[in-house]
Amino acid sequence: MADIWSFLQSQHLVPHLLKGYFGLESEQHRLTATGQLSRAPYPSTFSSRQTNPYLKTDFADNMLEMVAPPSQGSRLAVRNLTMIQEVELTHLKNHDFLWPLSVPPVFSATDLHFAGQFNSRAWVAQYHDYLQAKYGTSRELLTGIHINFSFDRHLLTQLSAHLTSTTESAITCQNQLYFQCAQAFVAYRWLFTYLFGASPVAGNRLSGAPVSFSAPVRSLRNSNFGYTNFAEETITYASLAAQVRQLNAMLANQRFFSLHEFYGPVRLKGRATDLADLLANGIERLEFRAFDLDPFAASGIAPTTLDFLELCLAYWLVTRPTLDLTTARERNHAVAMQDPTEVFAWVQREGGQLVAQLREFAQTIKAPAAYFHALATVQQRLQAPTKTPSGRLAQFITSDHQLLNFGITTGQRRYQLFAQDPAPVPVLAETYSVQEQRLLQAAIELGLSISFTPALQISYHHQSLSLTPTEPLIPSDITARQFLCRYFALE
């Protein structure tokens, strides 16, 4: 650590450690007022899911996938995700709402069959049917939050150049830095499952799960029965080279349909989707896939969660810890399947040790107050499991081991709060005018590129439109959507 720390100080790079970028993706089910699977078709006003970067669906057409534009820092990242969710809420009808939990309620046999067939994305039909046959419909209906994270580019470029040896390229070094952070997350996944797990009960039985188990648990989705590959197809994190070799073998032997079938807790992402490009041009971001929807956060994730993750990643980047991954999967499963109102002594001990190290690190780099607040929240949860999301959910679990009433009440209340707000996109109301909100909403529906920095801008191919509270002025006889379609010659 000493060499890296000295370099960061000498190059004035320490402030860049906590200037990472987040891009959030949320999956949520559209359900009816009684908690059944909604039959409503995908909104026709949205552009094709094949090309729209923000609005998509996953396994079923009612399983909405909302992808937020990346931004620096946790607050803007959550705001951007909320913005996409509010555009989706605009198009809910017939008292439908977004289910706030990662595990759907118990669906009837009719609903479950319909969910397995409710896919109008012809371009992924073969993959859809393959997943259904291999993993079962219930497992494919699990939802969550995916967190894409990248370090500040200037920081990583300078650090990679500094660590480059005569036998390694800067790209190789950058890959190693990102991969060591992925390894550390896998090693400490049990802690993230303890702190943020929020799937304490089962809906329909998951393929491969025992017929019965002691419920509630902390995070069924993060257990070995949840959102993961089969045990015999577990992908290694021992080294980047070993992971790439294993993934290539899984593809060559047709054990995996494509790289999309890798359900590991963190994926390595580059410019393209193939592994050769990843090694040649470098890892550009990490995609963390082990986060349940937080039912106590309107967007499904709290800024505090992102602050804690970013602080961990910055710490692991600098310290380059030596890790033992041999028992990572077993430890995480044990924590995931534990009663959410209980905590293992070793979790408190080892989690407390990491928090102490992170607090010292945060003090050394003079981290903003938000990161210390995140550490305080984590410390409280380590001391009292009833303060974790699953621990808080325990009080709402009914005698039949379900959260149906909680899910319906929470989801409907959030929709009603949105519907009662006069702003087109309420989360943007304090920052942007009504006209800007309407233009952004229309741009998202059309799948146009939007950017908030350095100024608000909507783009399509090589054409751009800069926005201010008063410019452009939309004529009173057309809508924001019609204005954008004319401006970019879309229709």
UniProtKB/TrEMBL annotation:
GO BP annotations, alphabetical order: glutathione biosynthetic process
Pfam families assigned: Glu_cys_ligase (PF04262)
UniProt GO molecular function: ATP binding; glutamate-cysteine ligase activity; metal ion binding
One Gene Ontology cellular component annotation held by this UniProt entry: cytosol
Pathway(s) this gene product operates in, as recorded in its UniProt entry: Sulfur metabolism; glutathione biosynthesis; glutathione from L-cysteine and L-glutamate: step 1/2
Top EC class, one word: ligase
Domain Glutamate--cysteine ligase: start-end pairs: 8-253
Keywords annotated in UniProt: ATP-binding, Glutathione biosynthesis, Ligase, Nucleotide-binding
Annotated EC: 6.3.2.2
Residue intervals passing through the bilayer: none
The keyword Ligase belongs to this UniProt entry's keyword annotation: yes
Reaction it catalyzes: L-cysteine + L-glutamate + ATP = gamma-L-glutamyl-L-cysteine + ADP + phosphate + H(+)
Family: Belongs to the glutamate--cysteine ligase type 1 family.
The name this protein goes by in its record: Glutamate--cysteine ligase
Provenance organism: Limosilactobacillus ingluviei
Lineage, broadest ranks: Bacteria, Bacillati, Bacillota, Bacilli, Lactobacillales
